[in-house]
Each structure stands twice: as structure tokens, then as C-alpha cells.
Amino acid sequence: MSFPSPPLDGALCRERQNRLRTYLAERNLEAAIFFNRHYVYALSGYWHEQPLTPTAILVARDGETTIFTHDDSAVAPAADRNVTYVPNHLFTLKPNLSGCLAEVLNPFLKTIKTAGTEEQTPTALIEGPDCHDISEDYQYLRRKKDADEVAAFEFTIQCAYRAYATAQKIIKPGVTEVEVMAAMQESATLEAGEFLSGWGQDFQCGSPGGFARHGRKIEAGELYVLDVGVGVRGYRSDLCRTFAVDGNPSDAQEAAHARIVETMQMGEAMLKPGQSCSEMYEQVHAGLEGWNGYQFFHHAGHGVGLDAHEVPRINPGWKDTFEVGDLVAFEPGLYGAELRGGIRLENNYLITEDGHRQLSHYPLALTSTSA
Q1: Which letter, b or e, does each residue of 349-362 get, where b requires 16 or more Cβ atoms within 10 Å of its Cβ?
Q2: Which of the listed residues 102, 163, 187, 297 has the most CB atoms within 10 Å of its CB?
Q3: What pTM was estimated for this model as a whole?
Q4: Which residues of the chain are in CATH 3.40.350.10 domains?
Q5: What pLDDT score does 3 carry?
Q6: What is d(CA 284, CA 264) in angstroms, rounded to the nearest whole number?
Q7: Strand ranges of the sheet holding 347-352, from the earlier edge strand across to the other edge
Q8: CA 3 vs CA 45, 103, 182, 194: distances in Å
Q9: Reduced to 3 states, what is the DSSP secondary structure of residue 165?
Q10: Distance between CA atoms of 340 and 250, rounded to whole angstroms?
Q11: d(CA 195, CA 103)
Q12: What would the mean pLDDT of 304-333 be, rounded to a whole number?
């Protein structure tokens, strides 16, 4: 086991705060108010373990950084102050917990006229400043991952490895999708050594993806697409592997798998600073859509980190370009009835000055070790 997750560097948290302050100054905003506990962690180093209760961070453009939590012993290496609230009475949670937090937050906002917020911040409860949603801008602002964030992200990849190893041991005809999903989640949790902050996403067999179905048993001849996101303390990897249930893939399945591996190699050559993401998508799409009558109907990848999908997007709907420091998931796939579900492979990469560094290396083979 490799836990615990490496802690964030307080000095780098401060650098992330300063980048946010520069953004606030450029847009004439006096503060940022975030309720997303992942963002609180990235900016302050404080991890709020309890998902039932809210936490918040206030980054003043020209002042201090304050976190708000019910934990009076919170460890926050990059916060100047910790303000606590009471979320329960005799351990029974109060209604409107965000309102409880806002009661202690609002006194700090009396002199602030304008503030940036993100999608989880309950602006109806915020008293004082004029609130502006900066959710998308903040994704662009924090797209460059610092060394401590990359280390935290790589830890989640190790947790995903253990989940895949467990899946390969138990996958066989007759096992249910829920059994596979539950065993993988247990293994990832054991590797993390703590409650996962994120878990998902595709556990249907004989299908391009979806949640595990109650009572549904996996069958010989099917392919099992397991697209797994493991989150630990807010940071979340995103990998996909596909396995033949009976360990005996057909010629058509093997050929499609080889085509996707070739496409991954082609796409990896484009993972470099300055590359247009939409152009990369078009090349991937052209090489897969319609090949042997199969379909490729989704994006070719996206940024990863604190949210399931981040900047940049390998998607024709956006005009993103790779930049140094991007964490990227690249995921080509092929789908069709003859494939008994489909095949998708996904790895994670860090964009570097001279190209990229591949972060995930779990084997791509279709054959399960249990075969």
C-alpha cells in the first residue's frame, strides 16, 4: 500500500492564491469565495474530510486568506485564519448547512463590493458583495498544475491501478456488474487509505458505458469497458481499460483494439504545447469513425485534476490549445454490435515544454489475468 496521499506544499498553495489575486485585480473583483472543497484544498492545503458539511475559502484580493469550517483544529498551511461554525446540535445535523456557514462568512464580506464565485457557492446566502460567477475562468486560471498537484494526481493513478488489478482477478462470466464495481471501489479505497473524494464512472458490461446495473451478470464474449475516476483529497485521475470477459477476444475485437492502440500512439505525438485540441480531435475522429463500420461518438479527451472534466478539452466544441502544465486524459474508442459493447482506452499525461510525460502505464491488453 502507498498511502497516505502526499500533502500539498503550503508555498505552492500561496502561489496559487497569488495567481487568483492577479486575476481578481484584472477584473476589478475584491475577493473570491469558493465552497468547492477541492478548491479549498488546492488553495489552502486544508482537506475537509466530511462531505456532508460545507467548507469555504475567502481569498481577499488585497488581504488575507480565510477558511471556514466546523473543524477548530483544521490544518491549513496556506490560510491566515480559520473561522468555525456549528453544523449540528447534539450531533444531529442542522438544516441548511450552507446557511450555517454563511452566517459566519457574511460578517467578513461587509466591506467587499464585488466577489468572484464558483458554481457550488450559494450566492443567495451571500450578503454584501455583488457576486460574479468565475467557474469557467477559474478552470483556465488553474489549468497549469504545480509539482505538488501532479504528485497528488499520480497517487490517485496508483489507486486506480489496484482497482484494475482487482477487476482482472474477478471478471468472469456470471459475476454481476455491481460486484465488479464494488470490488474495484474497495481496492481503490484500501490503496488510498481513506474515504475517496471521487469515484466513477462506467461499470456496464457489453455497453459503451454507464452505471452498474442491479443484478446484471456479465457474459462470455462481451467486452467490459471500465472507465474509472479515482478521487483522493479532491484530485482525480481518469483512466479506462477494456477487458474480454472470458479472456478470449474475437478476431474483430482484437483488430479494433489494435486500431485504438495505433490511434493512441498517433494522438500521443500531438500532446505538446501549442497543439490545437480541436485539430487533434479531428484527426482522431477521422481515423476511427466508420472504421470497419464502427462508431466513435464522444470527445477524444479532456483536462483532469480537481474536476472530472477540465481545461483543455479535446473536443471540436472548444478552441483550446495545449499548454505546459496541463494534465490531460486522452481516450479514443470504437463501438459497435460486433464488438459486444466496444473498446475504449484512456491514459493520463502531463504536458511539458518538450512534449508530454505519460503518467499512467497500466497494461492496455484485452485479456484478463483471470483467463
Answers
A1: bbbeeebbeebbeb
A2: 163
A3: 0.96
A4: 10-141
A5: 60
A6: 9
A7: 310-314, 301-303, 327-330, 347-352, 355-358
A8: 17, 36, 20, 8
A9: helix
A10: 10
A11: 29
A12: 97
Contact 305, 235 (CB under 8 A): yes
CA–CA dist 11, 114 (Å, integer):
27
**Rounded distance between C-alpha atoms, residue 60 and residue 34, angstroms:** 12
Fold of the 147-358 domain: Creatine Amidinohydrolase (3.90.230)
Q: Is 91 helix (H, G, I), strand (E, B) or coil?
A: coil
Per-residue model confidence as pLDDT tens digits over 80-115: 999 999 999 999 999 999 999 999 999 999 999 999
Which segments of the chain belong to CATH 3.90.230.10?
147-358
Per-residue pLDDT band at 4 (split at 50, 70, 90): confident
Under a CB-based contact definition with an 8 Å cutoff, are residues 249 and 243 in contact? no
Residue 8 has pLDDT above 70, yes or no: yes
CA-to-CA distance for 235 and 300, rounded, in angstroms?
Answer: 21
pLDDT band at 371 (very low <50, low <70, confident <90, very high): very low
Burial 278-298 (b: 16+ CB within 10 A, else e): bebbeebbebbeebeebbbee
Determine the average pLDDT of the residues in 255-262: 98
* C-alpha to C-alpha distance for 315 and 301, rounded to whole angstroms: 7
Question: Does 201 sit behind a cis peptide bond, omega within 30 degrees of 0 on the bond before it?
Answer: yes
Q: Which of 42, 88, 46, 49 is nearest to 67 (CA)?
A: 46
68 Cβ neighbours under 8 A, 6+ residues apart: 55, 56, 57, 58, 82, 83, 84, 85, 101, 104, 105
Q: Which residues on adjacent β-strands are paired with residue 92? A: 89
CB neighbours of 329 closer than 8 A, spacing ≥ 6? Answer: 238, 239, 301, 302, 303, 304, 346, 347, 348, 349
- Domain 10-141 belongs to what architecture? 3-Layer(aba) Sandwich (3.40)
